[in-house]
Amino acid sequence: MSSSKDETKNKRKNAFSRRGFLQGLGAGTGVLSTGILAEQEAQAAPAAVSGPDAVSIMLDINGKSVKATVEPRTTLLDTLRNQLDITGAKRVCDRGTCGACTVMVDKKVMYACTILAVDAQGKKIETIEGLAPEGKMHPVSQAFWDNDAQQCGYCTPGFVMAAKGFLDRNPNPTYEQVKKGLGGNLCRCGTYVGVRKAVLQAAKTMGGKNA
Amino acid sequence: MPNYSWPAMDKRRVMGQPIKRLDGPVKSSGRAKYNSDVHPKDMLWATLVTSPHAHARVTAIDLSPAEKMPGVTAVRAIKKAGDEVQWAGMEVASIAAINEEIARDAARAVVVKYEVLPHLVQEQDLAKAGTRAKPAGEQVSGDPDQAFKDADVVAEGEYGVPVITHCCLETHGTVVQWNGDHVEVWPSTQNVSGIPAQYATTLKVPANQIHVHMDHVGGGFGSKFPLDLWDAEAAHLSKASGGKPVKMFLDRETELTIAGVRPSAYAKVKLGAKKDGTLTVWESKTWGSGGFQAANLNADLFPYVYRKVPNRRVNHSGVSLNAGTARAWRAPNHPQISLISCSALDDLAAKLGMDPLQFFLKNADLTSKPDVYREQLNKAAAMIEWSKYGHARPDQTKGPIKRGLGIGVNTWGGLGHDSQCRITIQADGSVEVDLGSQDLGTATRTMIAMVAAETFGLQVSQISVGIGDTNFPPSGGSGGSTTVGGVTVSTRKASVNALGKIFDLLSPIMNVPADQLEAIDGRIQQKGNPNKAMNWKQACAKLGAQTISAMGENLSRNAPKEGLINQGVSGVQMADVSVDTETGVVKMNRLVAVQDCGLVVNPRTAESQVLGACIMSTCAALFEERVMDQQTGRVLNADMEFYKLSGIGDIGEILVHMDISPEHDARGIIGLGEPPAVGGMAAISNAVANAIGVRVGILPLTPDRVLAALANRRNA
């Protein structure tokens, strides 16, 4: 056992990757080495290993290729906010609960606090800043303004992105669908009534077409 | 003295219109920069080392492992050996580093040794509090003992609501740079103008060398007035790091553990009435905790709104806990006292066999405004269709889903804090309105612009508002629903004063006496005569090289006699819920709010305030509770997954009626932050009791509590 532990330690020291970690565990526990996880790992292409020190990565954000230097543990959210000064996405729960950091990754609505920056490489990341040029308003943002769907406004960018992603998939939602579809975002001031109206208005102004 | 009174209700062009909030575009396009977003050049990241123990003595603290870490720029001990910590999460040391990851690693590297001491973190069972409970003393009026003997019906009940946290989405914190004698601060605060004086005392820097900036704040709700220990630490870390700016914003766990709570309130109530439903006597023994320094509930407010009950005995005990401290929370004291009072009144009505609406109406003479409350109760009853859905306890419908209605009431003060406003008008016609206030999302910015636009006869888009900067004249902290009163009076006065200077300038040019001029629809004209007029731009062009600057001031002590603003509002909320008696789940159908708030400056944003308050009440009624673990002394749910807020689908439909009428309008402006945040919990709790026929005494009304209450009824 001690040797296998040492082996794990060495692997982790040299290269912290899930693959290495699982292999290390596998040496001492037969279950995992023959389990589903191991099978999937075996089929996957050889993992690109990075870290534990900061590494240079390229991210595709709002159609632009940008460079960042991140540790493997750094989330996409912290990279956007702390390094790239893209601060529309907010860090509120930092635990995938509240939706204040909602962005689109390859057209999917995602919480930026739940994605590691290194895993976001090669994907198309869209933040609220990409919805419209500065000084212009996307129809979803316009609808939030028109319906007073913000008070302190800290949850608003996440809500706007969630609404946009929701409308991309449901261009003509019913009121009941809006109440379910936007359930992944939390507001403290209590702006939900305005948000419901805003999403319905945005659907109407966009004429049932994708935003 | 100039006439500062508001234009007549039917003459207003801008005030009273549902203007969209001025900062809506930057907020809903994600471009609003909050101070947690700012990133001055060379900024460092700070974090705290906090106590894992609820009560302990620090025996040793070793900062050196953190100090040695590459990238760490400063480490400070907040506690030293021998100091006690009184709650888990209390600040022990602080760290600044070149990035956030290193700062966190360094915090973990600091070695603190503790001698663990006994703690108390739960207060629901008063018997276990021992000497940690401090009775405030009994207050008695009339003869409650005799009144109970004389009463035809006496009801008793136990009620309560636990500690809840503000859970501001933008956590508490600041960015600060202390460079030489000068301090630049970007805080998240409800109190922009109040920050320099607080920092000056702590840092021993002259207040005029401290400059505060804040465009937006991500929620406060009463918890962001003081300069906190971590704000001061951030400044010291900046100085110790060669004057580089430092960002110190709490993480979510720390935010929910130490950055402020609303005190709990638990009660044993006994009350009595005559057969006809007249309330004759109230007795309550209450207790609760706001943390280590036990916050006292103002028991003099019992029975809430119905305070003129002739016989009364109240006593409240504050319980000191080893837990994070209380801060003001929208309408301090009122939501808890409304809940306890309206629940007990509702239970008494049930025991009398009386419709609760009739009971609340019948006893309206015990309120300070019988006519207003009667009118509001009737209005709310009509909106929620009481005659259609109202019934005696419980809902007799077959099947597991039971529906019920309930009532809660509110009251609050108002008036306005001290505020100074400076208006600058240039020859190009531009109007700048500056005051060191803040917009918490209440549309303060928008209302300032509306008052100025109204006075100058301009559109809101022609007014530039500057707030959130200590280079502007001081304005009070935003609390107690005093902001709209303060800033609208100072802005109105500054605007009237500035306009007077324009009239003086134009009088000889237009050949009209200054007191015969008026500003209306973008023109300065002879009163009532659009043919003798100049448009705003032409008029301001006459300034030439001059600039007009005028001040206006609201002094809170003078405000009552000036009559521009007022205090004392009333409101009624009614809830309609469905309870699944098999699962215990409470579902909101509707919540109705009838609210008077004097002269309503902006009905759109005023309604948003009421809607938000209703939703916050729903959160507290159904979901919110800080859960403490007596074993470890820690908060078990210091995150947003298990500290629950309602989502967009949890709130039912909300119907708001703003009581806008000439009579209310004539009273002047009254703030709206607090009153609608009061009655919702009571309305929802009463609706659940009405649906299922048994009181779920302790909030939040979670499925386990509902099922336990139903089981108790079956076993009884």
By oligomeric state, this entry counts as heterodimer
Helix content of chain A: 40-55%
Radius of gyration of chain B: 28 Å
Structural class of chain A: alpha+beta
- Strands side by side in the biggest sheet of chain A: 2-1-5-3-4
Low-confidence runs of chain A: 1-39
Tally of alpha and pi helices of chain B: 19
Largest interface: A-B, 60 and 56 residues
What is the radius of gyration of chain A?
A: 21 Å
General shape of chain A: elongated
* Strand order within the widest beta sheet of chain B: 3-5-1-14-11-12-13
Summarize the structure.
The complex is a heterodimer of chains A (211) and B (716). By secondary structure, chain A is an alpha+beta fold.
Overview of the molecule:
The complex is a heterodimer of chains A (211) and B (716). Chain A is built from nine helices and five strands. In chain A, a hairpin with a 2-residue loop joins strand 3 (102-105) and strand 4. In chain A, 42% of the residues lie in helices and 12% in strands. Chain A is elongated and about 45 Å long. Chain A has 211 residues and is α+β, with helices and mostly antiparallel strands. Chain B is 28% helix and 26% strand. Chain B has 19 helices and 29 strands. A seven-stranded mixed β-sheet of chain B has the order 3-5-1-14-11-12-13, sandwiched between helices. In chain B, strand 28 (586-595), helix 16 and strand 29 (653-658) form a beta-alpha-beta unit. The longest helix of chain B has 28 residues, at 483-510. Chain B starts with 23 loop residues before the first helix and ends with a helix. The mean pLDDT of chain B is 97. Chains A and B meet through helix 5, helix 6, helix 7, helix 8 and helix 9 of A and helix 1 and helix 16 of B.
